[in-house]
């Protein structure tokens, strides 16, 4: 099916409060423009250089989300324009984002990535590391970042109960810290759910889904 049709079908199926990030990694700008022309304004990429290239070539009223693992030394390339960084998983990375945001006179929104899967390969913080980060003086003093929520990726499995358990875990961690309102921490977003599991993620409380192959086709 054409990209525009895929996109509109998915959009129709999403509840009003759920934000759609169109994951366009590895796809050419011409594909992204089809989604753009169908009204999509939020795109997710997992490599900084690729996101910068696409940002340069595409209309400027697009919100670019970095959904991949971020290397500290590359933050500077996206700091002028990135709209949300999903994969923040260390204080060290947050320190660098804060520094580059300051240089650009911006406040950059971030999600903390939580480790919920049963796979060694996935990145993220556990519950204790999350608490440590949020209570550290280094974090509380940062003025150019804002934590707006949590992000997680479920195990790659067909076991719906397993996936549901992992999403529910993320939702409960979010609920536990939601009352913690400071200037640089205002939690509203739970980024969970991809092409294969977004309906389940929404049932479990997701407010932001990251969908790639169901819109743009396989990679
Ligand atoms: C690639 C990717 C997605 C989208 O995956 P699809 O299965 O193609 O929808 C979502 N989140 C992250 C972090 C990704 O890397």
UniProtKB/TrEMBL annotation:
Task: Read off the Pfam families from this record.
Answer: Ala_racemase_N (PF01168)
Q: Which GO molecular-function terms appear in the entry?
A: pyridoxal phosphate binding
Signal sequence region: none
Q: Which UniProt keywords apply?
A: Pyridoxal phosphate
User: Where are the N6-(pyridoxal phosphate)lysine residues found in this chain?
Assistant: 25
Q: Which Gene3D superfamilies match?
A: Alanine racemase
InterPro entries on file: Ala_racemase_N, PLP-binding_barrel, PyrdxlP_homeostasis
Segments forming domain Alanine racemase N-terminal = 3-218
Give the transmembrane ranges.
Answer: none
Origin superkingdom: Bacteria
Q: Which cofactor does it need?
A: pyridoxal 5'-phosphate
What does the protein in this record do? Pyridoxal 5'-phosphate (PLP)-binding protein, which is involved in PLP homeostasis.
NCBIfam families, per the entry: YggS family pyridoxal phosphate-dependent enzyme
Record-stated family:
Belongs to the pyridoxal phosphate-binding protein YggS/PROSC family.
Q: Which PANTHER family match?
A: PROLINE SYNTHETASE CO-TRANSCRIBED BACTERIAL HOMOLOG PROTEIN, PYRIDOXAL PHOSPHATE HOMEOSTASIS PROTEIN
The protein in question is named Pyridoxal phosphate homeostasis protein
């Amino acid at each position: 099916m054409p990209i525009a049709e895929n996109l509109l079908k998915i959009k129709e199926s999403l509840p009003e409060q759920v934000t759609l990030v169109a994951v366009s990694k590895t796809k050419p700008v011409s594909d992204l423009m089809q989604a753009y022309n169908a009204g999509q304004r939020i795109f997710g990429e997992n490599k900084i250089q690729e996101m910068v290239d696409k940002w340069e070539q595409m209309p400027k009223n697009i919100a670019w989300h970095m959904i991949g693992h971020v290397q500290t030394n590359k933050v500077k390339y996206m700091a002028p324009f990135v709209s949300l960084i999903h994969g923040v998983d260390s204080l060290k990375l947050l320190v660098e984002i804060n520094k580059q945001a300051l240089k650009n006179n911006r406040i950059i929104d971030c999600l903390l990535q939580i480790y919920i899967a049963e796979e060694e390969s996935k990145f993220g913080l556990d519950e204790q590391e999350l608490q440590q980060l949020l209570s550290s003086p280094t974090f509380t003093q940062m003025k150019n970042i804002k934590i707006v929520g949590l992000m997680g990726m479920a195990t790659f499995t067909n076991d719906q109960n397993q996936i549901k358990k992992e999403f529910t875990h993320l939702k409960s961690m979010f609920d536990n810290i939601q009352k913690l309102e400071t200037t640089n921490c205002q939690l509203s977003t739970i980024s969970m759910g991809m092409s294969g599991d977004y309906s389940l993620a929404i049932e479990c409380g997701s407010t932001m889904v990251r969908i790639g192959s169901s819109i743009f086709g396989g990679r």
